[in-house]
Fold these 2 entries.
Entry 1:
Amino acid sequence: MTNLLDLLDKGVGGVSFNPKDLAVELVAYGEPDVARMLLDMSPDTYTQISVLAGRLLSGNLTIDKAICLAAVEVFEGRSRPLRRKRRVYPKAV
C-alpha cells in the first residue's frame, strides 16, 4: 500500500481532501457515479487521486476541480472534462 506521507517525504506532491466533502462537489459537477466510488475507495486510490490532483494544480484550476478531475481519471482510467463546467448544487428543502 502506498502511503501519502511516504510520498510527501520523497518530494511527491499531493492534495489532502475529505472524500465526503468532495463527493458533494462531484455531484454538483454532474458526476454522481464517481462520487459514489469516491466514498468507497481504498487508501491506494486516495493516494493516486491526491498525487494526480497535485499535478493538475499546476494549471489554472481550483483545488476542488483538480481533485474532481483526478477522481474521474483514476476511476475511469482516462481523463475527460467534467459533465458540467459549473457546479449546480441541489436546492435546500
Entry 2:
Amino acid sequence: MKWIPAFSKRTMFIYFILLFLLYLFYALNTCLVDERKFSLNRFLLKRQYTKYKNAAVRFVSLLGFNVEDNDYKYRRLKKQNLIPVKRLPDALVIGVKKCGTRALLEFLRLHPDVRAAGSEVHFFDKFYHKGFEWYRDKMPPTLEGQITMEKTPSYWVTRTAPKRVQAMNPAVKLLAVVRDPVTRAISDYTQSASKSVSLPRFEDLAVVNISWGGSQAVAASWPPIRLGIYLRPFKRWLKRFNRESLLLISGERLVADPAAEMARVQEFLGLKRVITEKHFYFNSSKGFPCLLKSESRSTPHCLGKTKGRSHPHINPSTLETLREFYKPFNEKFYELCGINFGWP
C-alpha cells in the first residue's frame, strides 16, 4: 500500500516553525556562553537566519500558502521622531495689521498639525540682531510633520523683512490678510482711540486742508492711511519670493465665510482639510465669527473683547474721498496679485 502522509499541511508548517525557533535558541545560547565569539556568531546567525527564512518561504509555498511579496512582505518602517523639538517657522503670517491676522492664526490653531508662537515675536523687524537661535527658542515645540508658524503683521511693511526671511528659508510659506483699505484705516484708528480719549476725530486726521479755499487732500503719510496702500509692500515681497509662495487672504471672506477661506489656507499649507463649518458660529452682536471649540477651550467663545469693536460714525464725504484716493492703488494691486477683492 502506498504510504499516505499522516500530517496535514498546517501541522507540518507548525513543526517546521518550532524547529526553526529551537535552532535560534541554540544559536543565541552559544553566543552568550562564549562572549569572545559573539561578533562572529552574530554574523553567522544573521546568515543562517536569512537562509532559513528563505527556506521557510519556499517550504510554505509548497504547502499551498500564498506568499507573494506584494501580500506578505514585511516593511521596515522608519521610526518617527516622537520627541517635540523647536524649529524655525515653516510659515509666516506677515500682515496686514487690522485685517484679521489674529483671527486667521486662532482659526489655524484648530488644526492638529499646526503649532504657532503664542505672541508676536517681531524677529525680522526688531530683534533680528539676536540671531536665528534666539528666534528658534521662541517657537513652540513640534513633532515631525507638524507646521511651525509665527505671526507678526509689521513684517508686511518692514523693508528689510523680505530679505531676512529669505535668508532663513527661501521655501517658507507666507500668508497675508488684506481688506478694504478704508475699513482697515477706520479699524486702526478705532484701536488707537480706545487707548487715547484725546485723539482727534478720524476725519481730522485722514483728510487735511491744503488751501484757504477749503480744498482738502488725503493725509497719505498718516500710518492708518499709508498701510492701506498694499501695492508697495506686495511688490517688495515679490522681489524675494515667487507669487505661489505668498497667499493673499480676504479679510472680508474670513468673516463672511471662514470655513471656505480656511479651506484655501489649508490647501496652501499642504494640510488635510480639518477646519470646517463645524468649528464656527456667527455672533450677531459682534458681527464676527466665533469658535465652537479651539486648541485651549472646548466651549464656544469669541476671540476677545477687542475683536469686533464698533467703529465710530464717519462723515460720508470723508469716506468717498478716501475711496477715490485708494481706487488707483487697488486696481494696480488687483492686477499684480491676480485677485479682484471687490472693494468699493
